[in-house]
User: Fold this.
Amino acid sequence: MNETASPKRSPAVFFDRDGVVNVSPGKGYVLSWEAFEFAPGFFELFSLVKNRGWKAVLVTSQKGVGKGLMSTDDLETIHRNMQDTLREKCGAEFDGIYAFTGKSDCRHQPKPDPEMIYSAADELHLDLNRSWMIGDADRDIEMAIAAGLEGSLRVRGDKPIKVEASGTVNSLEAAVAIFDGILTDETQG
Assistant:
């Protein structure tokens, strides 16, 4: 009998983009790479996740595409440059990028629907029961809860809080200290 072993499932940290990976544009949208500014502390947090052997996955709502404020190519350019910068600064990049654009041909569902997390779990062989979400809005936390993630961390910003996360921090620097104690070392064995 020839059975193929299923691949080992890895834990992951799911990152919201605007307000976590990059400085929040407020009520608007980041429409170009020139307007994209990495959030203070993000490189350190991202490096910690990757150095512990965890997958890093971007799950983001980019409705500016669906509203015609930017094209899909513009969004892909931002993400390509983001990945290039991460490889340069951290020696790693996101394992997957999942974006809801609001266009009729978009294959993903908007947050808080957990579809982007489920797609990533299937494609990247992720263990959701050991995975975490870091976001700045209720819909990020709701998505984590709906997907059955182990936990969620909210980066406090200017958005109202109605849904409690597993933890809340005022900065990504504080998130590094918390995740340093949470993330097991997956590089061994």
In short: The chain has a mean pLDDT of 93. The longest strand covers residues 55-61. The CA atoms of residues 21 and 39 lie 6 Å apart. The two ends are 27 Å apart (CA to CA).
